[in-house]
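Check my protein:
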Amino acid sequence: MKNIAYLIKESGMGFNEVLDLPYLIFFSLLKQYRVFEIEQTEEGRKALAKQEMLNRTEPDWSRIRNSNQYQIVKKID
């Protein structure tokens, strides 16, 4: 119920409109409104950037190639 009330407040939709939203749309809107709210502060922007970095699945190859360990291994080969 807390999430429904939050979406009503943020979106301006009515109770029945929010309840009639498809499941995925409801949670997409909820996520976007929460992210917008967090982005309003500097601390929130830093937390979102940190979370984005933690969720990366691909390594940053340019940082790896520029590291000293990579240069040492490359010279040995």
Summary: Helices lie at 2-11, 15-19, 23-38, 42-54, 61-66, 68-76. The mean pLDDT is 86.
